[in-house]
Design a protein that fits this description.
Strand content: 15-25%
CATH architecture of the largest domain: 3-Layer(aba) Sandwich
Number of strands: 16
Largest sheet: 6 strands, mixed
CATH topology of the largest domain: Rossmann fold
Radius of gyration: 26 Å
Helix content: 25-40%
CATH superfamily of the largest domain: P-loop containing nucleotide triphosphate hydrolases
Bound molecules: adenosine-5'-triphosphate
Structural class: alpha/beta
Distance between the termini: 30 Å
């Protein structure tokens, strides 16, 4: 665990970049420092690996004051990733990644083997190993930066706006990759960003800082969204807090209806029996169970259902895996107001109305079960 205890950083010109900051950064999870430009995020991060020394206060790692540890061994226990990756332009990708193992005295062959292993782990094609950084896209370079930071297998990873310079699609991919790596390797990650959505997506804990280097709130993302500490945090979180918080509730507790579903090859009796439900529409599925579209019951004739005449079913949500936010989005976008739930293979497992989703949202909020992070 990294413990920041009443730390202040005053630069020689008198600027107070960080002001009496205290934080307990939990082990094996992602802690995000977020806040407006100049609020002291980078300074805080750099104090953790002693690129910047605090003016007052202490930082300890597993109970030991880092000020008393040799800088070299401290930095070796902490990978560091920055914006634009900061790769060595004249070294190949594999040698960039192998840098720290080589410094640690590994043979060239062993260091390169490790580098190739890491390329795979961060989702880089092995064919890129002999290229130079300028021959890679921005997103690929960031992956190399992450691989290089992981090379000596440090328990801590410090990341300073690592994904800020890439477009939103690539960024989402990098974020997913980081969550996967974190799950697999269980590193303690301290991540700096000015983007609150990124903070909410990645953070186990989020520290919102305000100008002047003070802590505004330190909480899990779902709690930030439900109970911002003050007007500054509320303003920084931006619009749609309620909707965004739904991302933290799983959809698996939604009661699904199975009756208003008919297969393309349904008999007249099956259509008739499905039509006597409350649902004003029936969902037609292909024979393999994948959704085709909605129809009013009276328009369906056994043996003569034309898929192209059905109403679009929109974007289904994966039951249990996607969140209540995804389910609500499906229902809102559906021409019938009903959302389609599918399994991992895309087969329909049920349908659910906007009204039922609304009830589930109310009871989830009441129970406050927002502790588990879910996709979508
Ligand atoms: N070496 C320095 N000397 C003097 N002031 C500095 C120095 N480095 C940073 N500062 C000031 O300290 C404050 C905090 O800077 P810091 O880089 O930590 O903020 P930040 O939150 O990371 O900002 P950004 O999101 O813009 O990168 C700013 O006012 C900055 O101008």
């Amino acid at each position: 665990m990294i413990r920041i205890d009443s730390v202040t950083k005053r630069y020689p010109d008198g600027t107070v970049a960080v002001d009496r900051l205290s934080l307990e950064i939990p082990d094996r999870s992602i802690t995000v420092l977020v806040g407006p430009s100049g609020c002291g995020k980078t300074t805080t991060l750099r104090m953790i690996n002693r690129m910047v020394e605090p003016s007052e206060g202490t930082i300890s790692l597993d109970g030991v004051d880092i000020g008393r540890q040799p800088v070299n061994s401290l930095r070796r226990s902490m990978g560091y990733v920055i914006q634009n990756a900061g790769l060595f332009p004249h070294r190949t990708i594999v040698d960039n990644i192998a840098t720290v193992p080589r410094l640690l005295g590994w043979t060239k062959q062993k260091a390169r083997e490790r580098a190739r292993e890491l390329m795979e782990r961060v989702g880089l094609d092995a064919a890129l190993a002999r290229r130079y950084p300028y021959q890679l896209s921005g997103g690929q370079q960031q992956r190399v930066g992450v691989a290089r930071a992981l090379a000596a297998d440090p328990p801590v990873l410090l990341m300073d706006e690592p994904f800020s310079a890439v477009d939103p699609v690539v960024r989402k991919g990098l974020q997913e990759e980081l969550l996967r790596i974190q799950e697999e390797l269980g590193k303690t990650i301290v991540f700096v960003t000015h983007d609150i959505d990124e903070a909410i997506r990645l953070g186990t804990m989020v520290a919102v800082m305000r100008t002047g280097g003070r802590l505004a709130q330190f909480a899990p993302p779902a709690e930030l969204l439900s109970s911002p500490a003050d007007a500054f945090v509320e303003d920084f979180l931006g619009a749609d807090r309620g909707i965004r918080r739904l991302s933290f509730f799983p959809s698996g507790a939604l009661p699904l209806e199975k009756t208003p579903i008919v297969a393309l090859d349904a008999s007249a009796e099956q259509i008739a029996s499905r039509s006597s439900t409350d649902a004003p529409y029936l969902l037609v599925t292909a024979v393999d169970g994948k959704p085709l579209g909605w129809s009013e019951p009276g328009d369906l004739i056994a043996g003569d259902i034309e898929p192209e005449r059905l109403l679009p079913y929109g974007r289904p949500f994966e039951y249990g895996k996607d969140s209540l936010r995804a389910a609500l989005d499906c229902a809102v976008l559906s021409p019938t107001g009903w959302a389609v739930a599918v399994d991992g293979a895309g087969r329909v497992v049920g349908v659910v109305s906007q009204q039922t989703i609304g009830e589930a949202i109310r009871s989830a909020h009441a129970a406050g079960r927002a502790d588990e992070k879910v996709a979508g």
